[in-house]
Amino acid sequence: MMHSVVLARRPAGNPVEADFAVMSESLPVIPEGSFLTRNDYVSLDAGFRNWMNEDSGDEILPAMPLQEPVMGLVLAEVLESKHPDYAIGDKLMARFAWQTHSLSDGSDFIARLPTDLEFNPSAYMGVLGDTGMSAYFGITDIAQLTSEDTVLISGAGGAVGSIAGQIAKLMGARVIGIVGSEAKAEWIRTTLGYDAAVVRSGDTSLSEAIHATCPNGVDVFFDNVGGQTLEAAITNMNHRGRLVLCGAISGYGVTPHGPNNLFELITKELSVEGFMTHFRHERYDEAREQLSEWLRQGVIQSPEHRLEGIENVGKAFADLFAGENFGKTIVAL
Ligand SMILES: NC(=O)c1ccc[n+]([C@@H]2O[C@H](COP(=O)([O-])OP(=O)(O)OC[C@H]3O[C@@H](n4cnc5c(N)ncnc54)[C@H](OP(=O)(O)O)[C@@H]3O)[C@@H](O)[C@H]2O)c1
What we know:
Elements: E1 2-7, E2 20-25, E3 35-43, E4 71-81, E5 91-97, E6 101-104, E7 110-113, H1 130-142, E8 150-154, H2 159-170, E9 174-179, H3 182-190, E10 196-199, H4 206-213, E11 218-223, H5 227-235, E12 237-245, H6 263-267, E13 271-274, H7 284-297, E14 304-308, H8 313-322, E15 328-332
Parallel strand pairs: 8-9, 8-11, 9-10, 11-12, 12-13, 14-15
Antiparallel strand pairs: 1-2, 3-4, 3-6, 3-15, 4-5, 5-7
């Protein structure tokens, strides 16, 4: 049988488990020119929330239809093939759907993996997958980080942030993370090696809390959150600082807030660059090799928030928005 998680209703604001349901059907017949995969892991990626609202389709992806399998990244192995380019046993990281099996004609976004995986397979969804490579491209190519820099990272204990912080430490920078709880603050300092953490709380303004931790200002802001967090970071940026825009989770599926201080981009001569990792597809082997080397040397680790079973995929996705995850959120099927 093939089990799929479908979009049962459109989330109102942050997604919750009840927005999703599991449907089961027989394995499909494979038409000529297609192949069938077994999906071993589902990667939960906050960005897919953007395409769950009605009429949310854009130049990147179409809006997700109701009662259809939810689009997402999976670690897949080809089970049967009638496609000339895909053979039984090929391992793929692919944008298919939250399913135990997928039928593809090869037109989906697919990145090939080595047949013999050197690391735990789930690592290819996290540190060696889209989120780890986002951290890599953002900190190296875009931030052009140096050991003189103070770097601030939002969503610091999530899939991207946990790797971005460790890479920034390897480059000798002073690294500060913004997180949602004291427990996560403690974890990013002791486990990931962040120099300090700023906890989002209703009591102190975020801008003041950043200033208290970065009294000499911020040279690089690596943003996963957007909105008010981005606004608070801009206020603390040093002259000619760099803003690396990776994500904006606080505005996914809801009306985004601000930032309302963009004039400071001019007065401080800040540079701003957003990026989408999948547009760097041709550099995945290079990024994966560097991240693999760091894993071999034991200088970075790959923390996971891991759940088991197709019935827990919706909960795992909701966990991202509730800040439950420490590291990469993944479901083993
Ligand atoms: N540009 C690209 O190519 C690319 C690729 C992959 C991911 N991304 C982006 O990277 C970011 C991280 O994605 P992810 O899927 O790996 O998730 P994640 O960082 O593993 O988890 C999301 C984290 O964001 C924080 N958060 C959630 N809602 C928030 C809110 N309203 N305000 C402030 N913080 C909030 C939570 O941590 P705390 O509660 O501890 O703060 C949560 O743990 C997302 O914005 C995603 O879209 C971009």
